[in-house]
Amino acid sequence: MLDFIKKYRLHIATGGVLLAAFVFYSLNLKQKSHANAFERGVQNVMAPFYRVVDRVSGTVTLVWEDYLDLVNVRRENKELRESVKTLNARLLETHEAVLANERLKKLLDMKNTLRVPTMAASVIGEDGAPWFKTILIDRGESDGLREGMAVVTSEGVVGQLVKVAARSSRVLLLTDNASAVAGVVQRSRARGVVKGKGGGRCALDFAVHDEDVKVGDLVVASGIGGVFPKGMPVGEVTMVKKGDYGIFQTIEVRPAVNITRLEEVLVLLQQNND
Amino acid sequence: MIKILKYATIITGLLVAQVTLLPAHFTDPFKPNLLIIVVAYLALKGTSRADAGLAFLLGLVQDCFSGLYLGLNGFSFLVIYLLLKKTADRLYTDSYYLMILVVFLITIVNSFIHLFLLAIFSVADGVYAPLLAALLPQGLVNALAASLLSGATALKAAEEGK
Predict the structure, then answer these.
(1) Separation in Å, CA A111 to CA A98, A156, A221
(2) Does residue A199 belong to the interface with chain B, where contact is any CB pair within 8 Å?
(3) Which of A129, A196, A199 sits opposite B67 (nearest CB)?
(4) A197-215 pLDDT tens trace
(5) Is A238 domain-assigned?
(6) How far apart are CA B118 and CA B136, in angstroms?
(7) Whether B107 contacts chain A with CB within 8 A
(8) Looking at the partner chain, which of B23, B62, B134 has a beta carbon nearest the beta carbon of A126?
């Protein structure tokens, strides 16, 4: 018997351990919902470690996630900046389109009120010298333009065509010293010639001393000469000086059109004196 | 041929800048006259006999986009070129500052030639007022433009020399 045990001690021990484990397991089946002393002991010993490890792990996870978030935020920030730029550009384009639309709508309204055929043109250049006042437009002889034709906007008279090339033309502005338009004061019908004085100014010359002209009066084209339609606004009287001597008054006129802000104009294709 | 193409490209670029680009950002009288700087350059540093013709041609090109009188700038540019050429051999033409001073002075001279010719031959009797008012600012703006262009040219030359 002893020999038998000695010979198979390992197997017997293994079987015993297995049996003990089985018995331990079966004994604890009844108290499956309660922790026994062993379980409580192990839990009590391990809990602080778990807590610490859990906190560290949580912190590491948090840092890692924050880092990942930061990387994402950086990328997202970059993308958002790009999209803000794009949207800003689109906003500007839209704003510009709205303004162009308003200007063109006014020009179209003006075109509809005129009884002569017209041609819209864009301003593509300005005079190089400050003492000459001309602009360059993108329409020319091939579009039916000729020298002497009137150029207007919805606000009023701009000038006259000079130097027409095949696909571009130059416009002598109302404010150039060589420019002259027959004008009449709308309220009192006082006649004169609106002459350019350079630097964005005009004067109503040859208005006789006794004529009734006041600051704020509107000067319109008289239609004499047949270039500009009668009644087209030319400018507003800003200064009147009547000397004791001389037969004419000195009258300063501010052009109805803001010459420095011209972008689109209408060319009247048919002159009345044609 | 390459030299001619180079000149043509530069002049076209300057002309486009002068007529379209700069007026959009600068108001009168602060729009520079870039072609007059080319005339100064031709007179001070040019060696070809055709430069006088080129100066006249530059004036005519300028006239095509400025004022009503074709030949006004042609004449004034040619006069300025000849005057400068006559004195160029007595000047230190490599000087950066001389170019700026010359451009300032020829802008003034150019304006007075215009004034003289317009007063005699045109009906634009009141042109003297804006012309005289623009005289000094125009001279200074042209001098500034000349300093920038000369600076860019000198920088390029220095880089090529390295």
Answers:
(1) 19, 12, 17
(2) yes
(3) A129
(4) 877 889 999 988 888 889 9
(5) yes
(6) 19
(7) no
(8) B23
Q: Give residues 117 to 136 of A whose Cβ lies within 8 Å of B.
A: 124-132, 134, 136
Phi-psi region of B64 (alpha: psi -120 to 50; beta: other; left: phi over 0): alpha
> Would you call A130 and B124 a contact, using CB atoms and an 8 Å cutoff?
no
Cα–Cα dist A81/A79, whole Å: 5
Which residue range is the domain that position A151 belongs to? 118-274
Residue A266 lies in a domain: yes
| Rg (chain B; Cα; Å) | 16
Task: Tell me phi and psi for residue B100, to 5 degrees.
Answer: -65, -45
Please report, for chain B, the start and end positions of each structural domain, with discontinuous segments joined by +.
2-161
CATH of the domain at A165: 2.40.10.340
Q: Say if residue A15 is exposed, middle or buried (CB neighbours under 10 Å; 0-12, 13-18, 19+).
A: exposed
Whether A178 and B122 lie within 8 Å, measured CB to CB: yes
Which residues on B lie below 8 Å from A125 (Cβ)?
19-20, 23, 65
Neighbour-count burial of B18, counting CB atoms closer than 10 A to its CB (0-12 exposed, 13-18 middle, 19+ buried): buried
Residues of B in contact with A130 (CB under 8 A): 28-29, 31, 130-131, 134, 137-138
**Chain B CB within 8 Å of residue A162 CB:** yes
Report if residue A6 sits inside a domain. Answer: no
B150 in A contact zone (CB under 8 Å): no
Cα–Cα distance measured from residue A133 to residue B134, given in angstroms and rounded to the nearest whole number: 13
State whether ipTM is beyond 0.85.
Answer: no
Q: What is the total count of domains within chain A?
A: 1
In a domain, A125, yes or no: yes
Per-residue pLDDT of chain B (162 residues; tens, 9 = 90+): 787 888 888 888 888 888 888 887 788 788 888 999 999 999 998 888 788 888 888 888 888 888 888 888 889 999 999 999 889 888 888 888 899 999 999 999 999 988 888 888 776 677 788 888 888 999 999 999 999 988 887 777 777 766
Strands (E), A147-190: 150-152, 157-164, 169-173, 180-185
| A260 φ, ψ (degrees, to nearest 5) | -75, -10
Q: How many CA atoms lie within 13 A of A142 on its CB side?
A: 6
